[in-house]
Protein: Phenoloxidase-activating factor 2
Organism: Schizaphis graminum
Amino acid sequence: MAAILKTDINEETGIKTENVFLCGGSLIHQRVILTAAHCVRDKNVKMLKVRLGVWDTQSNNNEEEKEISHQDRGVLSIVYHPNHNNGTMFNDVALVELDSEIKLYPHINVICLPKNEKQKNYDPQSCISTGWGKNGFEPGSRYQSVLKKVDLSLVPNDVCQQQLRTTRLGNFFRLHESFICAGGIKGVDVCKGDGGGPLICEIKDSREKSKQYIQVGIVSWGIGCGENVPGVYSSVDANSQWINKELKMITQ
């Protein structure tokens, strides 16, 4: 899990506030982060950094522990899906190129991605999403300093569309093919600030001794937090052709 951080500058005082949490992401190559386009759209790359290997963003580890626990990298460039639209949120996918490679450790590694749209060798009832987002949508809700996870199940798009039509979106809402849905159980959901984070599902029939996961979604949007309505994620499957093409161009 990657944390994308920004530096804010107060326009009146000129005071800088560094390491302000922006959104989540996932490591798909030692130099590339997969995230949601809406999180990083129109951001100045010089004011961004990516942190990996951290679970407590407020930890006061000493320098020796920091070297082991997490790694920071600057951002060289951001590539957005050409069909992304901040209004509709269609194809809410972006790749963040880091200024140098991340060193891999047991707690910092690359997540597997579907090779193509037809790869479905994962359990839709055994999925997880993680993030440092808010603990609610109400006023006074706060971002989490410690990384949280929620256990979720995927929801078929036709069922998800029907449930979303019961909300303010109305009876004519159509769920775009670039999305998938998960959750829908009250009180179990991602929330504001979790955007860009991964939705991963357990790989079926893995030959490994420990559980293996594949990333199937990217946290995109939802109706409130923890309501009886599924959350909406950018589909990694549906966007796999673009992701693989751009990843190859960045890393070649």
